[in-house]
Please model this.
Amino acid sequence: MISDRVVAPRVIRTVVPAEAEAITALHARARATYYPDGIPDDGTDWLAAWRAAIARPEGHVLCVVDDGHIVGLASFRTPEDAPAETVMLFQFHVDPDRWRSGVGTALHAACVEEWQADGKRTAVLEVHVDNRRAQAFYRRLGWTPGVVEPGDHHLPMTFDVAGA
Model:
């Protein structure tokens, strides 16, 4: 498992439980960018959800720390009922103030490194249909879009970890 990885002045490492509030705040800032009318309240307690993700023994939550601040995060694991060689990228967010600075690309590279070390062959994710910026980012990194089913709000994408 990746515990610390230095990328220029940045460090990419595993999130610790004490950082759950910072992760939750970054998640909210990033999500707000693709909900022009405000983030819908679906009843999710995001602080509890992030605490659970951080505590999952079979999951990973990585962060990018730059200048002492968490500026990127990624959460992934093998979903229930999925083949062992598949990993799902559940969350991937970069602080909007750090977009186009290389944070996302470095974090993605760390994820791929972890997936390869863990023997994963395929990665999957779902990106909000209105989040065109994220869709373009994933395409640039080699993700392949799937088909949006009628009424669905997410585009499924796949990544060939073994061929990366």
